[in-house]
Amino acid sequence: MAPRVLISDKLSDAAVQIFRDRGIEVDFEPELGPDKEKLAERIGDYDGLAIRSATKVTEKIIARADRLKVIGRAGIGVDNVDIPEATKKGIIVMNTPFGNSITTAEHAIALMFALARQIPQADASTQAGKWEKNRFVGTEITGKTLGVVGCGNIGSIAASRAIGLRMKVIAFDPFLSDERALELGVEKVDLDALLARADFITLHTPLTDKTRNILSREALAKTKKGVRIINCARGGLVDETALREALDSGHVGGAAFDVFVEEPAKENVLFGHPNVVCTPHLGASTKEAQENVALQVAEQMADYLLNGAVTNALNMPSITAEEAPRLTPFVKLAEQLGSFAGQLTETSIRGLRIEYEGDVAEMNVKPLTSAAVTGLLRPMLQDVNMISAPVMARERGIHVEEVRREQQGAYENYIRLTVITERQERSVAGTVFSDGRPRIIQVKGINMEAELGPHMLYVTNEDKPGFIGRLGTLLGQTDVNIATFALGRLERGGDAIALIEVDTELSEGMLKEIEALPNVRQVKALEF
Ligand SMILES: NC(=O)c1ccc[n+]([C@@H]2O[C@H](COP(=O)([O-])OP(=O)(O)OC[C@H]3O[C@@H](n4cnc5c(N)ncnc54)[C@H](O)[C@@H]3O)[C@@H](O)[C@H]2O)c1
Ligand SMILES: O=C(O)[C@H](O)COP(=O)(O)O
């Protein structure tokens, strides 16, 4: 069945065409985005949801999204998506981090000019027939200082445009390296220095707990008299009430806002001030940017739904379209190894070491590690998936270590997973043969070769004659059919392991009877 995608926001038509060309069924219903009730009713029918900022993908929507595999944001900000809930449910959230950056930086520069020359006010006055030449005396921006708060993709483009306009650019961004600042030609400063020196301040950070009200009342008080403030990033970065007061007192000379604490902003404390310029979240709204993000998000979502390739996901490591088919059998092996170890572990897990050897060590092992952790945690946490597993392991204090060795041993590729508990370390290893099917090749240091089926019987025993016959007879007497039988031992007469695939689920009573056989140490039914 072809995957189905819902576009619930005003995306460029280009996205619809891409989905169709790739054989994906698509419903383009931009009116559903703002209608939470209707969206909740419909979301259960779709594998993919493509959005901009008008669709709020809340916990409630996600709870009804039983088929949903991917949410694609045609744009940058994903603060309208409940990512932890999506993660719990195994839904990938992806965005298009660069497609609208230039356009948004240009909007910030446009707003800076609008403030410097009061263009919207002068336009309104002129068209009202007033010709107020003396009222609109502006300020030249050449030689002025622009303070950039958040010098990432958009902030750095805005900085480069401002440098081109012969401004001096200073930037506050704790994650901006000295090398990058040098390369951009900006001076790295702390926030207080930026506030004290900037003639214009432009904000380009995401809205986080750290950046909320980064321009607070106190911060605004530290700015230079007459400063002009531009916000094209997110509402909530500036205390709007405090800014209004600073505008009223004349301390702040002007403010140009594209984003607001509450959107759509039908009313706002900034509205009506003569030195305020507002646009309705237009930062990304150019034909070029909208085509970029729509095309990109549709391609990314189609790649994921059709081939398992992951690009620009916020809750999953990337997998390219080329590597996706190659990784698939290894993902299965890693999950089986994790599940094997998880089902045998009864005490709390402290750590997990995953060793990749041979060919597989040269692959993108991040998804394999996620699969191994998923398998390991599933016996304890039913709802875990490849997307949520790394977060869940971290939350439970399970330290995950990846080791890669490119040299080959006896196998072309080899994955060994070691679970570390308070009491012991237990390892299980496997490989993928050229038939693309995973095999278990070592359990607790004992070599064997077993393919895992849905119902497995795991028995550890002392290597003594007669054991296999007794076990076979017992299973036969109770009508349990053996599909495959793999054996291994440390040495003659030493520890031995039997891994047997049976056609039916094993009852508790059956397991007890096997446990009672001579020389048996441990018996476990494993499900895969
Ligand atoms: N108005 C619009 O239509 C529009 C369009 C596109 C993007 N945006 C918004 O613009 C913002 C920036 O987007 P981007 O693509 O440049 O993001 P980005 O991730 O490339 O850059 C953000 C920068 O903020 C910095 N930062 C993080 N925390 C900080 C802090 N506490 N103090 C200072 N700097 C901090 C980061 O180090 C990073 O360099 C986002 O919020 C995005 O949603 C708005
Ligand atoms: O984060 C973004 O990409 C911008 O805020 C654009 O939002 P929009 O797609 O709703 O215009």
TrEMBL record:
What sequence ranges are listed for the domain ACT?
Answer: 456-528
Name the InterPro entries for this protein: ACT-like_dom_sf (IPR045865), ACT_dom (IPR002912), ASB_dom_sf (IPR029009), D-isomer_2_OHA_DH_cat_dom (IPR006139), D-isomer_DH_CS (IPR029753), D-isomer_DH_CS1 (IPR029752), D-isomer_DH_NAD-bd (IPR006140), NAD(P)-bd_dom_sf (IPR036291)
Pathway entry: Amino-acid biosynthesis; L-serine biosynthesis; L-serine from 3-phospho-D-glycerate: step 1/3
| Catalytic activity, reaction form | (2R)-3-phosphoglycerate + NAD(+) = 3-phosphooxypyruvate + NADH + H(+); (R)-2-hydroxyglutarate + NAD(+) = 2-oxoglutarate + NADH + H(+)
Q: Does the keyword Transmembrane helix apply?
A: no
Q: What class of enzyme is it?
A: oxidoreductase
What GO molecular function terms would the record report?
NAD binding; phosphoglycerate dehydrogenase activity
Stated EC number for the protein is 1.1.1.95
**What GO terms in the biological process aspect are recorded for it?**
L-serine biosynthetic process
Keywords, ordered alphabetically:
Amino-acid biosynthesis, NAD, Oxidoreductase, Serine biosynthesis
Keyword check for Transmembrane: no
**Domain of life, source organism:** Bacteria
Q: By its UniProt entry, which PANTHER family does this protein fall under?
A: FORMATE DEHYDROGENASE 1, HYDROXYPYRUVATE REDUCTASE
Among NCBIfam families, the record links this protein to: PGDH
Q: What does this protein do?
A: Catalyzes the reversible oxidation of 3-phospho-D-glycerate to 3-phosphonooxypyruvate, the first step of the phosphorylated L-serine biosynthesis pathway. Also catalyzes the reversible oxidation of 2-hydroxyglutarate to 2-oxoglutarate.
Q: Which family does it belong to?
A: Belongs to the D-isomer specific 2-hydroxyacid dehydrogenase family.
Its name, as the record gives it, is D-3-phosphoglycerate dehydrogenase
Q: Which organism is it from?
A: Lutibaculum baratangense AMV1
